[in-house]
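User: Here's a chain of 165 residues. Predict its fold as tokens.
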Amino acid sequence: MNPSPAASTKCEFSFTVNGEAKNVLAHPMERLLEVLRNDLGLTGAKEGCGEGECGSCSVLLDDMLVNSCLIPIAQANGTSVVTIEGMSAHSLMKPLQESFLECGGAQCGICTPGMILAAAHLLDKKLDPTLADIREGLAGNLCRCTGYMQIFEAVAKAARGRAAP
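Assistant: Prediction complete.
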């Protein structure tokens, strides 16, 4: 069965990525993850499961934490997307990176960008999160290396460091 001509037609989509206006030509159902990685060269979001289960491809879409492997580019048209690369100037980035290293929360690295993005998203909303808050805030992210306690401690440490005078 041959695809219909409309299914193979690329369309122009416009959105903001990490504060910069972007226009891309893509198939409407092409995943945001593929556009970010292949068309825009933003490889921080990782292809983990492709089913929205692991969080390796996490991005912020209009300030909502989403799995970019589940978002068709057509749905991202007109939105604001922030990737892990766009978090470089965020006030929590350095404390989170340091605490992940110090606590052993970063091992193979596949989940780390999604974990850090989810942690920053949580800490933007909760100044002093409990362990339950941290578990809930990172619930959409899987790690096959750490056993999670190092990651939870890293997020708690970054929160404590930020809250200190």
